[in-house]
Amino acid sequence: MSGQPQHAPAFEESDLGAGDPAPAPQAARPRPADVDMGDSTSQEALERLNHAVTELKALSVAPLLHRAITAIRQDDAKTAASLAIQVLEQDERNGLAWHVLAIARELAGDFRNSIQAYEAALALLPDHAEVANDLGRLAFRMGQKPLAAQLFMQYRQARPDCPHGANNLACVLRDLHQYPAAVEVLQRAITANLGDAALWNTLGTVVSAQGDAANALIFFEEALRLQPDFAKARYNRGNTRLEFGQFEGALADCEAAMTGASGPAELAMMRLAQSTMLLCAGRVGEGWDAYEARLDPMFAEVTHFMSERPRWTPETELDGRSLLLFGEQGLGDEVMFANYLPDLIEALGPDGRLTLALEPRLIPLFQRSFPKATIGPHATYKLDGHTMRAAHFVTDDSGVELWAPLASPLRRFRRSIADFPERGAYLKPDTTRVEHWRRELAALSGRKVGILWKSLKLDGARLREFSPFEQWRPVLETPGVSFVNLQYGECAAELAEAREAMGLDIWNPPGIDLKNDLDDVAALTCALDLIIAPANATSNIGAACGAPVWFISTPIGWPRLGAARYPWYPHARVFIPERFGQWDGVMREAAEALGRWLG
Questions:
Q1: CA 450 to chain centre
Q2: pTM for this structure?
Q3: Which domain holds residue 309?
């Protein structure tokens, strides 16, 4: 945070910036529903601000600030900002004017300038607890979690008895994966406020993020006992029920919660959660329809796709049209969603034209697979806290008529499991590189089996989706196999563990970057006799290219679409544990299947 206020003229209506390059956005996943962190435009907050203005010694500017606060009450952010700037032009060290300006900028959606104004107010106001809370809430909203934690701690120190402050701090500590600290904050607050349903709800979200669904369910139930109409707790309980395979109960909770959503943003998040539940229950068409909630501008983690063309909808005729598709979600999702592209190309017909904006590492593989398509990289930016995705290679004269995110045409082409074809592959590896890897692998004895065991993003509840490496031992001790490392990212510790604890040397393929050389990775997967892996980028690429893949899945996995297999890859085999965290049984099952396969 800056220690000095900025001069008022720095705040211009057109000062939006060009946006900063950003990493690929996280896959659109429903978040836990937290109690609202507070609202700087609430009646209580504005009354408090009005009272502070009344006590100002600078009586000449007080009427301007009172009028600005009234404008905020009326959702007139422009007038409120103009009045606050008039005060700052007279006295740029007026902390209350900076606070009012910050609220007005936030109300207008200008988060970057709002943060600067909050910082100025924080530096100037002697009692800055409320400003710290407002700034912390905005920082949390913009994904600046460490800053939010620092500010909420300031507020907590100033208002130690406020359960609302404890709740805010616990939420950001949870999102920073500081789970013991979050639990400690909540335990103290609950001890002093046993009847506060909000605190029980947040405690449920913290233990759920740690993968403890059983205790999370208990805490959500307690929140609902204390407050039966608590929509957020009902929504959170629905997400937890989903983990136990209680599809109808999960959907009932989610749908009931949607009627009590606190605003459009929360409703969009609940709608996204509903899509996951529908897909897990095998209600595929309804699930894809609900999945459009990820594109709702009010969804907190929405990606805005930058195209001036009309957006394609399932009712739009495709024959002879020119369509731009933006890759979305994670890299593995871009591969999996491409399952329908052969059908889409057929629907476009000989006079149609397909343009794909994809993760750059996928372009060679997709260009070979769909040679008539125009394929280029998408670029992702952050602009005032909003995620924007562009396709700069698409020029004004490219003839694009329509656009859509990559998953949206699933609503037309994959409305049921029966709509998934039995084709073995839809991506084509480089055959010369496949032969290269077969020659390299020929030096190894026995059957050549590639393995992966984790994702690069392993934190919180996501840890439950991947078996710890030590539990792969029954598979790795299978005789007659040479295991080949396909794990991208840092994996030296696991390879050393296999060598020292199991006496097993897992072969590292030479001259390949397993994270970035994805076209060569595709060829390597097709040169192997078998791949055993969780569903991640590499295993999806291999399966889409027709490589033999055994997926180590999770008890509830939405890409299975309610089935015991992956409809996207009909040739793949799936091993499913009974419960999250119960990997021993499923890894023994995979090891026994591997032994039979060798025989």
A1: 28
A2: 0.83
A3: 303-415
